[in-house]
Amino acid sequence: MSDNNPTEKPTNFIRHQINEDLDSGLHSTIQTRFPPEPNGYLHIGHAKSICLNFGLVQDYKGRCNLRFDDTNPAKEDVEFIESIKNDVKWLGFEWDGEIQYSSNYFAKFYEYAIELINKELAYVCFLNAEQTREYRGTLKQAGKNSPYRNTSVAQNLELLVKMKEGKFSEGECVLRAKIDMASPFMCIRDPTLYRIRFEKHHQTGNEWRIYPMYDFAHCISDAIEGVTHSLCTLEFQDNRRLYDWILEHLEDFNKPNRPHQYEFSRLNLEYTVMSKRKLQQLVEDELVLGWNDPRLPTISGLRRRGYTPASIRDFVERIGVSKVDSMTDMKILEDAVRDDLNVVAPRTMGVIDPIKVIIENYPEKQVETLKAPIHPQNEDRGKRNIFFSQELYIDRADFKEVAPNKKFKRLAIGKEVRLRNAYVINATSFDTDFDGNVTTVYATYDADTLGKNPTDGRKVKGVIHFVEASTAFKAEFRLYDRLFTLENPGKNDHFEQLLNPKSLVVTYGVVESSMKDAKAELAYQFEREGYFCRDSEASDSLVFNKTVALRDTWGN
Ligand code: ATP
Ligand code: MG
After folding, report:
1. Per the confidence metrics, is the pTM higher than 0.85?
2. Which residues form the Glutamyl/glutaminyl-tRNA synthetase class Ib anti-codon binding domain (predicted)?
3. Distance (Å, rounded) from C-alpha 3 to C-alpha 21?
4. What is the phi/psi pair of residue 479, to 5°?
5. CA-CA distance, 410 to 85, in Å (whole number)?
6. Where are the alpha helices (DSSP H) in 177-307?
7. Is the pLDDT of residue 476 over 70?
8. Residue 93's domain is classified under what CATH number?
9. Can you give the CATH number for the domain in which 323 is found?
10. Which residues approach ligand 1 with their CB closer than 6 A?
11. Which ligand sits closest to the CA of 43?
């Protein structure tokens, strides 16, 4: 490995390329950029790109800027700009310099278009959409030259001015590069550089009537900003020819140290959809609660669900960077958050499906304060107060009249169990409702078992969690499952019909009193239940989103 690579992170083809470019002296420092189109909220796929672009320059002490690729006024919105800035920062990254907008360069793109016309490398074409398609040919058949291909430079310059001034209607003509209608790469067959749009732009208002295409704007924006390594996903592989062609034909940029594009495989996650268009459809059709619905793979959704920035960065490390397209198992994402939360999440107790326990030999009206560790593996984090009295709640699943087998380590009639952080209890009898559901369990406690085993040597193996009744707070729990019933729903035309009807299950239970001031989005480990965080949109009541189970239950 080159001396230039200062990290112990696993290497990949992009790092190899950077090392080579630094070793050869082509670049003395590197610069990347993250170039979102502000037409939706960011998702975990974007997180891969963010971690890659910002992570590389952290390691190589380079620069990474944030550029809004806002060349399509129709689909874009300032709401998305704000959310994207927030998400990048939340992930733990800071862009270098001012935020950039492709729209800042509209005047420059226009000058470069004139340069190409002057070099007889661009022309205004009046073929309509259908004709253009016909002239383009197919993968097997070369295209035909447009009849407008040989318009004189002077005339093309005039026509471009007219396009800019709004003298033509939308779709009447476009500016095209004059490259090669017989190229095996379709994107090289005289691609469109500029099209007419009468839409108002969120940054430039009504100043422009013509808007550059992605392929024209992207490479020039990279070059203006001094980007050295322009990283994008594999579907732009062919377009690299056009990226190179444009920069090589502009005087300002035709230098060895101009930007180069490198493609990596996009992240696809099982049982969800990842394109902004599809996510938008779910939001607009109100099939989910908004862009930050905790079931969505959006960064804001994952955040609302209790994911930490560190866990997402770790996930991206785990999947690595390659050129092979694949589907990523949701388990990898869940393992990453579980591993992080296991270390950082404070512990607490909550009962998701409560039944009452009455401790018959405990003094009536007495409420005892007990201490429980905030994190059992980290004593420095201190202790919290929990309470104990005659009336408690335990989970329905933790009591059976008769233990079903020897492995059953919960409460049953005549079978002792330890209440987590408190005493050993023994069930004596129980009440049921009309339908036979248990409502109350009666029990006795052993007063000599707080923080120690029974003195007579009895072994009590089971431990269950509980919440004291008089100090408990009612809470809503939102339990999530995969959003879709199919591994790759996006392939289906009607993916929205494949939603999992059980992707959200709501239950009502109780939490210990220390949770009444729980901070939104901060995940806690509810002992034996899983990781949960308080919902950020339900600030008046206690609503907890399940982040992830304590163990892998995916696929069960
Ligand atoms: P979508 O198809 O979801 O709308 P996009 O590629 O159109 O995504 P952009 O806003 O253009 O979204 O993307 C910004 C950057 O994020 C680009 O460099 C893009 O390649 C990268 N990116 C987008 N989706 C993924 C993904 N699933 N995996 C990795 N990188 C991605
Ligand atoms: Mg896009």
Report:
1. yes
2. 345-446
3. 12
4. -105, 130
5. 48
6. 214-225, 240-248, 276-284, 299-304
7. yes
8. 3.40.50.620
9. 1.10.1160.10
10. 35-37, 45-46, 48-49, 232-233, 266-267, 274-276
11. 1
